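Appendix B: a complete holo record

For completeness, this appendix reproduces one full record from the ligand-bound portion of the collection. The bound molecule is manganese (II) ion. The inputs are the chain sequence and the ligand SMILES; the output is the full three-dimensional arrangement of the complex, encoded as structure tokens. No fields have been trimmed.
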Amino acid sequence: MIVLRSLFGKRGAPRTAPGERVYAIGDVHGRPDLLDAMLVEIARHGSARGPAAQTHIVFIGDIIDRGPDSRGALERLEAATRRAPEIVTLLGNHEEMMLRALAGDEPTLRGWMRVGGAETVASFGLPPFAEAEDPVPWIAELRRAVPAEWVEWIRGWPLIVRSGDYFLCHAGIKPGVPLKRQLRRDFLWSREEFLDDMRDHGAVIVHGHTISDSVELRGNRIGIDTGAYRTGTLSAVCLDGETVEVLAVHRGEAAA
Ligand SMILES: [Mn+2]
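The structure of the chain with manganese (II) ion bound, as generated:
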């Protein structure tokens, strides 16, 4: 495990809000085994580090899709959140697609099937939506398969969490636009324009959504998606005052 201090140059080291320890966990994408392993690792890490006035455990979004067991990942997360109210899950673009499909948005449904939604519906016991079929009965079937209380729960997931100099969101932000005026779609879908931008965004942006080989610690952002569904490695960072530590759990490749 590494500890990094004063990474961030000109404004001085960024810090969490006083007394706050924040664990931010990368994209889970249908891997309940890794979700559980990471919560165990965080508990171990927290005991070793000693108590904090307040701890927040933040999943960065994209709990579902691509991996083998999205239904299981939601089930584990829901159970963990009931036990541990310090867990917060941010909305990811994949949950956004599922919510839109459930609401009857056909173009989103078609796109969702191509980017891992087929795996999610399979985990709920449904065949994928086929291009030529009538979407109305298929969507009705999906609504029966996904528990209504889970849909309401996911609808309530926030887009952002802030602690001191850190700003957490699923994908990123629109550079050059104040954090208070960002759009929902930028939190959910940002890619290169954000990733390549070297400017100070007014906070260090902690995000998932784009896979990197290891956690990316940059001056203006921290990328924590290490592609758990295909690498078997789920990563997280612990932000505590001025310290940043990287955590990871590994459970082998997802079953093909
Ligand atoms: Mn994403």
